[in-house]
C-alpha cells in the first residue's frame, strides 16, 4: 500500500465491513501479535447507548487542555475514513493510515489464513490501528 487510496481500498475490500462478528478472540489475538500496544498508556473507554461522541469530545478537550496527549477512535465517519482515528483532535494523516495498515498487514494475513472465523473484522482492524 503506497497510497492512502490503496490503503483504504485494501481495508474495505479485505475486511467484512458491516458484518457483526461476535467474540473478542480476534481482537485479542491481533493485539497480542502487535505486542499489546493498548497496555502501554492509560485509556478512557466510553460506552453506552447515547452520547458517547459528546462525552468523548468533552473528555478529549479537557485532557488536551491539561497537556495530555489524546487519541480518539470514533465510528462511523462522516466524510473521510481519517476521522475515525484522531490524535489531539486531529484526524490521522493519510501517511499514518498507510503506515499502520502496512504494519498490520502481515498479522492480518496470518490470521486470515486460519479461516474466516479468525479473520479480524473491519471494526477490529480500525481498533487495532487506533492503538498504534
UniProtKB/TrEMBL annotation:
Statement: the UniProt record of this protein carries the keyword Ligase: yes
Annotated coiled-coil segments of the chain: none
Coiled coil recorded as keyword: no
SUPFAM superfamilies in UniProt: MurD-like peptide ligases, catalytic domain
InterPro entries: Folylpolyglutamate_synth, Folylpolyglutamate_synth_CS, Mur-like_cat_sf
GO MF assignments: ATP binding; dihydrofolate synthase activity; tetrahydrofolylpolyglutamate synthase activity
Keywords: ATP-binding, Ligase, Nucleotide-binding
Any one GO CC term of the record: cytoplasm
Family under the similarity heading: Belongs to the folylpolyglutamate synthase family.
Name listed for the protein in its UniProt record: Folylpolyglutamate synthase/dihydrofolate synthase
Amino acid at each position: 500500500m503506497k497510497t492512502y487510496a490503496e490503503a483504504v481500498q485494501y481495508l474495505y475490500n479485505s475486511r467484512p465491513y458491516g458484518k457483526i462478528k461476535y467474540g473478542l478472540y480476534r481482537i485479542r489475538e491481533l493485539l497480542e501479535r502487535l505486542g499489546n500496544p493498548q497496555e502501554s498508556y492509560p485509556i478512557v473507554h466510553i460506552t453506552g447507548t447515547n452520547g458517547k461522541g459528546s462525552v468523548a469530545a468533552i473528555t478529549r478537550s479537557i485532557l488536551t487542555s491539561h497537556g495530555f496527549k489524546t487519541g480518539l477512535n470514533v465510528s462511523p465517519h462522516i466524510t473521510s475514513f481519517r476521522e475515525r482515528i484522531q490524535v489531539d483532535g486531529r484526524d490521522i494523516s493519510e501517511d499514518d493510515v498507510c503506515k499502520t495498515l502496512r504494519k498490520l498487514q502481515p498479522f492480518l494475513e496470518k490470521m486470515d489464513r486460519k479461516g474466516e472465523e479468525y479473520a479480524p473484522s473491519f471494526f477490529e482492524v480500525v481498533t487495532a490501528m487506533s492503538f498504534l
